[in-house]
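Course assignment 3, question 2. Fill in each field.
Student: A.L.
Task: Predict the tertiary structure for the chain below.
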Amino acid sequence: MIDQSLFNPHFISDPSWSQERLPTLVPAAGISVHHLMNFVVGHVIWSFAAPIVVIESCVPRLAERPWLGRVGITVLLVLYALAVVVVVFFHEHTRNFMASATQLGATAAVATALAAAAFALPRRPAASSGRVPPPWLVGGGAVGVMATHQLAPVGWSGSVLDLTVLSLGGCLLLFWSRRRDWDRRHALMVGGAALVVNTALSFVVEPLGGHTSLTAKYAVNATLMAAVIALLTWAYRRLLHTRAGTTTATLPEQSVLAIGGDRES
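Answer field:
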């Protein structure tokens, strides 16, 4: 509703915009299914879920606390409203294009319905018994799902493949995350997979804004990949450390002594 990129046929003055938009365009709605999948899924995973789970893995003892209180939420709402004003009145895309009232109304209705559903859904059910895959296997599967999403060919067949793989991966994630053996290591592997996939794709994507030397491009990409891996490694070690401390704290005294020796030692 703000930048209207889903509806604007000339949002970016580059041939790739039309090449990605037109093959799955639904004329009655003025929306490309390919763009819809890319924008919505991309922001849900890469703008919100992955950063949140990675940061919470870095501070696992605080991960259950809300990020913001009433003041913080109010400040962000005000900042967002100001950003909306800037985009609507000063952004070149919205100065030269305006979606129809039907498009904006339908978008608002969908957004409102999703927000209402988020509050109406019941709380997470009690954890069930059953095995879950090891974290490394969950991470490998997440890499496959997200790489498929990013590399699916433009067109109806690619969109169907993308939706199928994402739905299957989402169902498995929901199924496993409701079991007792699922912990933050598994979640970090999923969020970390998102960062690794996009960082890896930077090696094969042409930079925007003109020609860049291959040396500069690959040096920046390699530095970014090293930073992502370092961050994920540190977060995983933090989780292991916290998990070990929690396990030791819940052991009976005799077990602690058996691990650490007698009291005097």
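Instructor remarks: DSSP finds ten helices and two strands in the chain. The longest strand covers residues 25-26.
Grade: pending
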